[in-house]
Amino acid sequence: MDQERAILAFAALAQSTRLDVFRLLIEQEPHGLPAGEVARRLAVPHNTMSTHLAVLTRAGLIGAERQSRTIIYRAHLAAVSELASFLVQNCCAGRPEVCAPLLAELSPCCPPATTDSEPVHD
């Protein structure tokens, strides 16, 4: 990610409603939400929500997909990854022990799925 794209993304997120929209859409992955449902959940008028969704889309943080007559909005998780990587690309001057707490915070929120065939250790 280059600096201009990062600035565009941060500018889009630097407004409380857009930040709320983005966080809501991240919570709804991988299914996304229709625009009207996003507006309803955040108690934002539909026309205002349209503007916020357009800003987030231009910044590359979300995308829209038509499903019949409904437009479903989803967060672009790759954009989150790129943004986080942009922020820490020169982290800690090559000293991984300094970065360890930061990397732990950035680890996935969901543990990997396990299968029933994995052995159980007592």
Automatic annotation (TrEMBL):
Transmembrane segments: none annotated. One of its GO terms (molecular function) is DNA-binding transcription factor activity. SUPFAM superfamilies: Winged helix' DNA-binding domain (SSF46785). Keywords: DNA-binding, Transcription, Transcription regulation. CDD domains: HTH_ARSR. It comes from the Bacteria. Residues 1-95 form the HTH arsR-type domain. This is Transcriptional regulator, ArsR family. NCBIfam families: HTH_metalloreg. PANTHER family: ARSENICAL RESISTANCE OPERON REPRESSOR ARSR-RELATED. SMART domains: HTH_ARSR (SM00418).
